[in-house]
Amino acid sequence: MAKITLENLAHSYLPKPKSEDDFALKELNHDWVDGEAYALLGASGCGKSTLLNIISGLLHPSQGRILFNGRDVTNAPTTERNIAQVFQFPVVYDTMTVRDNLAFPLRNRGADPTYIKERVQQIAAMIGMEDTLNRKARGLTADAKQKISLGRGMVREDVNALLFDEPLTVIDPHMKWELRTQLKSLHHEFGHTMIYVTHDQTEALTFADKVVVMYDGRVVQMGTPQELFEQPEHTFVGYFIGSPGMNVLEAQVDGDKAVLGGTQISLGKGFGPLTGKVELGVRPEFTSLSSGDVGLPVRIKRVEDVGRHKIVRADFNGTDVNVLAPEGTEISPDLNRIVFDPAGVNVYSDSWRVAPKVA
């Protein structure tokens, strides 16, 4: 296992980048704690795979250093980094059996045959392929081949880190859940440093100890699922995490009050002078419907009953707002306003969260 340090790390695919916009991966300074499980989460093109490939040694960064346990490996080839990487699409040896595919990394390093046999059997059970160990990989389905790739990545116990680049893309939904559970079990048992790239928030939040959210080539927040949900440090985090995502509304903030479209509301906490584009971020879980003169006037567009609750889709001065209403709530015509729980209101300036003033 290894502590992974990213020091002034950045990368551009252009030979002579002239500005920050030319960088696919903007400057990073982060420590990845030895033995923790991380998920790199973000939309396609945000820099997740670029960062993973720099860590593995498949890509050399334009600037900065990468260290494993304090040792500079920036110029070290992949073979010297002692990592295992599983890619988005299956990489298997078609002419080999499933057993030989799984055993290959161990045989390549001269492991004891008895240990190889036991370890391959253990991994085969983990990925549900005990009955196909003696079959050739050629002719197996794409999801079966990807399970072989996952197994081969997990078969070594002595790696510095396990890297996964959207490995469950071709796996059926039920097997995705089982394999995520197995990966978490493997992590708890052996304590490998794991980095898992995904654009799926469910995968990220159920797999990782810490989620690293990326946006436009930049890490905008690293934290536990609870931290990302309760205090999104960037409006993208609030939008991307949660279903539905956080409501974001332009506002004028003065102390502990905010004005939205001519309506004043209380924030429950005070803020100093703000510059730039000011917005409130409130998750649907902290938003409720009201009637009369209390709250922001909205027009309800539709109601979606999803079983555990209802999602109310509303419009506030041209901005979409979502409200979660308890199952069984009657959405009557007079419920034409929304109210925010002050405990769930975050204030943003130019998309970044502003901490309230300490009393």
UniProtKB/TrEMBL annotation:
Keywords: ATP-binding, Cell membrane, Hydrolase, Membrane, Nucleotide-binding, Transport. Residues 4-241 form the ABC transporter domain. It comes from the Bacteria. GO terms for cellular component: ATP-binding cassette (ABC) transporter complex, substrate-binding subunit-containing. Its EC number is 3.6.3.20. The keyword Transmembrane helix does not apply. Pfam families: ABC_tran (PF00005), OB_MalK (PF17912). InterPro entries: AAA+_ATPase, ABC_transporter-like_ATP-bd, ABC_transpr_FbpC, ABC_transpr_MalK/UgpC-like, Mo/tungstate-bd_C_term_dom, NA-bd_OB-fold, OB_MalK-like, P-loop_NTPase. CDD domains: ABC_Carb_Solutes_like. GO terms for molecular function: ABC-type ferric iron transporter activity; ATP binding; ATP hydrolysis activity. Belongs to the ABC transporter superfamily. This is sn-glycerol-3-phosphate import ATP-binding protein UgpC. It comes from Pelagimonas varians. The lineage of its organism: Bacteria, Pseudomonadati, Pseudomonadota, Alphaproteobacteria, Rhodobacterales.
